[in-house]
Structure formats: structure tokens, C-alpha cells
Amino acid sequence: MSKDVSRSVLSTETFDCVRCGLNVAALAPDGVRRNHCPSCLHSRHVLDREGGRPECGSQMAPISIAVLRNGDWMVVHRCSRCGELTSNPISGDDNQFILMRMAVRPLAQPPFPLEPFGDL
Amino acid sequence: MPRRKHRRERVQRRKAGPEGRLDAFRCVGCRLDVPADAPGTVHRNHCPHCLTSLHLDDLTPGDRRAGCRGRMAPLSLTVRPDGEWMLIHHCVSCEALSVNRIAGDDNALALLRIAVRPLRDDRLRAGLRTVT
To answer: Which stretches make up the RNHCP domain (chain B) (predicted)?
Structure first.
């Protein structure tokens, strides 16, 4: 499947990040088309699922890390204008600091004390 | 303890929705009978025990506009800038995502299991061991 995807992406194709302005190659090192900036992980709301609301072209901020059953990480993006949520697989050269910061953020600001869980 | 900014909190208002709301529902995941009144939120939309939800609302909480009615499994947690946890649900039948506030009586152990899920990855654990 990844071969079909990579055939539709030119190896020289690039895009500018909507947030940090970084010019990145559209082809990720794992051979699939990337949809978020590897530096700031922001995305742009262009692709929408079929029959969904029309695309708005606005900035999508990364809000969370989701873990699939096979252990792969996905980044959940939220559109800053229309509030639509999407999840996308991470690529190998994504910013590890931002990924880790999102993964540990719930534990840094717990709504209940975590001390009782130490006894479990 | 949580680091919270002590600012004046906005009272959550109930969104306009269809009249005649149920006062209780049965969870599709664990069959627990759950009262609709929840501490800390005016829209309870997931089971406090297993955190499973049902795909009923479309854009606004309580609008009942989604025609899917599929089961929504808890996927991950995100944190608002004011430090409040939000639960991201993933619809098992139509793949839609939705984000909702947690309620005061939600199962703390179930929430914590979702919060530590990214960190219990074996590859990550191996990577951290090499760093330290």
C-alpha cells in the first residue's frame, strides 16, 4: 500500500509549514506522504473524510498522542477554526521533544492526586 | 498536586438541545446504569466506570444530530491550557473522533491507564534506558 502512496508523491515535492514556515519535503523518510510539519507538528486542515464537513484550510494544532493496539503512536490534531479532529501516524523524523511533551502532559497536570496509585 | 491558576471560573451553561432528556442511561460497554447528572459537568456523555460513549452528538454536546449511534471507545487524553483533562473518543463504527470533558466521578484508574499508555511502549522504554 505504501508503494501506491509514494508513487503519487514526487520526491522533490515540498510544502511550507503554516505555523513555523519551515520548508519540508512532502515525502517522509518511511516513504509515505507526510501531513504535518516534523518540527512543530502543526498541520493544515485540507483533507476531510468523505461526506464530512468541507475543508477550511486553517491551522491544526497537535493536542494529544494516541496509541494503536500494535503500539504505534498517532498524533491527534484539532483544527483551530472549525474544531474538527483528525489522527495521523507519526513519521520517523518528527520532533521527539514535542511528542514526549504531549505524552507526559496529562501526568504533569493531574486532576486528582496520583499518590494512591503508588500502592497498587 | 495540580498546578492550577486561581482565576474566576466560567459557569458551564447547558447547550440548546432536544427537550425531554433521559435521566439515566445504560452503558453499552459494561451495562452499568448511569444517572445523567454528573458532578463537574452538565453533559455526561460517557460511562464513569469504563469510559465508553455512544456516537449521538454531532458538533454541539447534546444536539443528538449524529446518525451513527456506534460505540465510542476512549482513545487518549489531552489537557486544556487551564489544566483540565479532556477525553478523546474514537467511534468504532464510523472512525469519527470527539473530545469531551471528564466528569468528577470518572474512574481514576481507567483514566490513568489511558494517560500512561504512550509511556508503556516497549520501544520507548528501551530508548529511555539507553538515555539514562
So the answer is: 23-112
ipTM entry: 0.81
Cβ of A117 within 8 Å of Cβ of B112? The answer is yes
- Is B108 at the interface with chain A, CB within 8 A? yes
Cα A8 to chain centroid distance, Å, stands at 21
Cβ proximity of B53 and B45 under 8 Å: yes
CA atoms within 13 A on the CB side of B130: 5
What the block records as the C-alpha cell of A68 is 494503536
User: Where exactly are the structural domains of chain B?
Assistant: 24-131
CA triple A76-A79-A85, angle to 5 deg = 40
Do A106 and B83 count as a contact with CB atoms less than 8 A apart? no
Contact B53, B78 (CB under 8 A): no
C-alpha distance across the termini of chain B, in Å: 26
Quote the percentage of chain B above a pLDDT of 90: 38
Residue type, position B12, single letter = Q
Using an 8 Å Cβ cutoff, are B105 and B39 in contact? yes
> Does pLDDT of B125 surpass 90?
no
Q: Which strand (E) or helix (H) includes residue B12?
A: none
Name the residue facing A107 among B75, B109, B115 (closest C-beta).
Answer: B115
- Computed over every residue of chain A, the mean pLDDT equals 84
CB B74 within 8 A of CB B67: no
